[in-house]
Each structure stands twice: as C-alpha cells, then as structure tokens.
Amino acid sequence: MNELAFLLKALNIYGHACHFLCSRVVFMQDHVFLGEIYEAAEDNYDAVVERCIGLGIKVDIQDINVKAAARAASIKVGDDNSTKLSGCLSLEQEVVAMIEKLRKGGSLSLGTETLLGDIASESEIRQYKLKQRLA
Questions:
Q1: In this structure, are residues 43 and 99 in contact, taking their beta carbons and an 8 Å threshold?
Q2: Taking each helix axis from N to C terminus, what angle separates 81-105 and 110-134, rounded to the nearest 10 degrees?
Q3: What is the sign of the dihedral through the CA atoms of 56, 58, 50 and 94?
Q4: Fewer CB in a 10 Å sphere around the end CB: N or C, the chain?
Q5: Is the pLDDT of residue 10 over 90?
Q6: Who contacts 125 (Cβ-Cβ below 8 Å, separation ≥6)?
Q7: Is there a contact between 68 and 91 (Cβ–Cβ < 8 Å)?
C-alpha cells in the first residue's frame, strides 16, 4: 500500500506542476483537466494513507513524499501540453498496475478492495480522457 501511496503522491505533484505550466491554444481545457487529475490523486493518496494507518500498516510519510517528489521530477514536463498529458497517463497506468498487483496479493479487506477498485475505476476514466486528448 505504501507503493500505491507513493505513486499517487507522485501523480499529485507531477499533475500539479503540469496544471501550472500548461499553455497555448488549449490552455483552459488542459488547465482544468490537469487540475482534476492532481486533485483526484491528492484525494486518493489521502484515502490510501488513512486506510493504511487505520489498518495498522506502517506508513513513512516523509519517505513517500521525498520519493514521490524525486519521481515527479524525473518525468519530463516539456514545453507542449502533450508531453505533460503523456506523463500523467504513464503515472495513471502505473497506479492501476500497482492496484492490480495489490489485489492479486489477496490479503485485502473488503473495504480496502472496494477503495482500490474505486481508485482504479476513476483512473481508467482519466486514462481514456488522456488518450482521447493525445489522439
């Protein structure tokens, strides 16, 4: 679950930077959409960390934040919005892959399973929108 929290925080940081730095003709649309991405990542990060704490899973918030910031910084932001959107898409795909890995582990409570399913479902919708925007 810590790895999922790390990916969500990285998406939050990266998406927020992209939100601020998008530009050009489709500025308003991309600015709003990127805002939705980083806000969703923040909400999901919060839910995962609180779930971990509630279940007694050790969470090192500082370590997660430091690693997430480094991961976000390692992804190219670029001058064009397409590069920013591609970076968000890549992170969204990593989030869902991590959820699938956690679910295959099989030791999740029903509530945690539902939470992860909800996060994956929302991410898949954003992935669809990102792919349509990048087409």
A1: no
A2: 150
A3: negative
A4: C
A5: yes
A6: none
A7: no
pLDDT tens digits for range 121-131: 999 999 999 99
Tokens of 1: 């679950």
Q: How far apart are CA 60 and CA 96, in angstroms?
A: 22
Tens digits of residue pLDDT in 45-68: 999 999 999 999 999 999 999 999
Alpha helix ranges (H) inside the chain: 2-21, 27-55, 61-74, 81-105, 110-134
Token pair 């991309």: residue: 30
> Phi/psi of residue 64, each to 5°?
-60, -45
Its pTM surpasses 0.85:
yes
Amino acid at the residue 53? I
Query: Tokens at residue 103, please?
Result: 């679910």
Angle of CA points 57, 44, 130, to nearest 5°: 140
